[in-house]
TrEMBL record:
This is F-box domain-containing protein. InterPro entries: F-box-like_dom_sf. It comes from Polytolypa hystricis (strain UAMH7299). It comes from the Eukaryota.
Length: 112
């Protein structure tokens, strides 16, 4: 297999990344160390937790960030859907999530 894609300039790879979905980016970060370095930041630019029960996914985000603290700097938008107010801890969870994830200063926290 040719390694021509690895020789593409970084800015061209990033331009390609803007047209890919999360699944494709997830695959690309596994291709090589070069691709991992380029595409990982694109993969985490928007974290969208839209499951019916997002609390466990938020906790997974916390755990991932504890292992790899630099990832929080990549996150520009954090979307969390379907949080229930039953426990009264929803807003606290969101705020702790933003703090725990070490989000970049300009990150946007959305609750669609």
């Amino acid at each position: 297999m040719s390694d021509y894609p690895s020789k593409l300039p970084k800015d061209l790879k990033l331009e390609v990344a803007h047209h890919l979905d999360t699944k494709a980016l997830s695959c690309l970060v596994l291709v090589s160390a070069v691709f991992h370095a380029v595409f990982e930041s694109c993969l985490y630019k928007t974290v969208d937790i839209t499951s019916k029960y997002p609390h466990s996914h938020v906790l997974t985000l916390f755990e991932t960030n504890r292992k790899y603290p630099y990832i929080g700097e990549y996150i520009k938008t954090l979307k969390i859907n379907h949080l229930r107010e039953e426990s009264g801890k929803t807003q606290e969870l969101i705020q702790v999530g933003k703090q725990e994830a070490h989000l970049s200063a300009g990150a946007i926290l959305e609750q669609p």
